[in-house]
Amino acid sequence: MLTSGVMLTTTRMTIRTSHSEHGGTLLVVMGMMVIFAIALLAVAPAVQYEVQREKELEAIRRGEEVANAIRQYIVFYNGQKLPESMDDLLEGLPQGTKKRQILRPSAAVDPLSEDGKWRLIKPDPETVAKFAKRVQDYNNGVLPSNPSRLLDRYTVIIVNSVNTESALDEDDESFEVVTDNQPFIGVASQSRSNSILSYYGIERHSNWVFTPLFRGNSSFGSSGSGTGSGSGNGPIRRPLPPRPIQ
Q1: How close are the terminal C-alpha atoms of the chain, in Å?
Q2: CB 163 within 8 A of CB 231
Q3: The whole model's pTM is what?
Q4: Where are the domains of the chain?
Q5: pLDDT value of residue 114
Q6: Of 128, 126, 163, 164, the residue nearest 146 (C-alpha)
Q7: Cα–Cα dist 125/161, whole Å
């Protein structure tokens, strides 16, 4: 009987020790999970910032491609015709018995808008002059020329508006969204959000107009270099990333 009692007491102590060890392990695991959660919260703003920044860079790259395709389209038709839909650019230009591609299918998609469709910008002062004024201000007061004389016919009225209008610096939050069946000289995003990147000093997606106009003699590219005699840094400015939560 004494032996049995000792064994029972030992068993109870072993069970208590096991429960204590399990409880300690659980506390350690919970502590690690809390630390991990805090670490995730600390890096989340930086991750979100980087994702949005890359998305905006891609939108600018694609917008520049569309602008270059518009330029090729206008030059091919000797300045007498504008594209009226993204399909006009995607179909390419006649080259013998084939078509010469001037726009990649991926560039026809706006990564910033919900439906992926670019907003078509028609060549009128009301829309383009505001962007031209921002380019002029960004370019130290000089509005770059067009890369082709064939584009000049679309900028005469616009340039006059830049020099006479007083409200061109105001942001235009109300605009008509047209994505098809309209002659267009450029495209812009439907997104009305403020941007992380600055494009020609503009920090709102909907005001980024991608057009072959006002490009000077520079070529198109992903960096957007085409600011004539300006600072030479290109139209994109990259702010510093946000600091993690302390």
Answers
A1: 63
A2: no
A3: 0.74
A4: 60-237
A5: 92
A6: 128
A7: 6
